[in-house]
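Anyone up for a design puzzle?
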């Protein structure tokens, strides 16, 4: 049985069927759901690298991409703040980010932001642990 807390945390269909993606990693990803929060994240990129992962819990590719990203040891990601956008629930925010950076919206998609600019982005199978760590390098 799925707990209400997990449902509230935005788990998608595949997450509910196949199980949570490393419970301890949940604290690594901070959910953002408004343009104001996104603007704060972008502004914070002047001080520290920010990563925004646009994710759909009902998409198989997105599910496995997140599992792959969750396999990265937290220490290796400490150079950045990690954020997640639910592209189904927060579709307007997903498109806002695409417009803000003049990047076509796709899902799954990851944006690495430094000094208020996207320095690397990838979508679909290009979103993986190796590419993210290289972009953060």
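Challenge accepted. My sequence:
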């Amino acid at each position: 049985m799925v707990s209400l807390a997990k449902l509230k945390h935005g788990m998608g269909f595949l997450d509910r069927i196949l199980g949570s993606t490393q419970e301890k990693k949940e604290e690594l990803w901070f959910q953002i759901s408004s343009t104001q929060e996104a603007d704060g994240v972008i502004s914070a990129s002047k001080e520290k690298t920010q990563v925004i992962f646009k994710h759909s819990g009902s998409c198989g590719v997105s599910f496995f991409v997140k599992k792959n990203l969750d396999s990265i040891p937290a220490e290796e990601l400490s150079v950045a703040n990690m954020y997640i956008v639910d592209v189904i629930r927060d579709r307007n925010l997903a498109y806002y980010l695409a417009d803000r950076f003049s990047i076509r919206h796709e899902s799954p998609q990851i944006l690495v932001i430094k000094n208020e600019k996207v320095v690397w982005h990838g979508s679909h199978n290009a979103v993986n642990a190796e590419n993210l760590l290289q972009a953060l390098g």
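A detail worth pointing out: Residues 93 and 121 are 17 Å apart (CA to CA).
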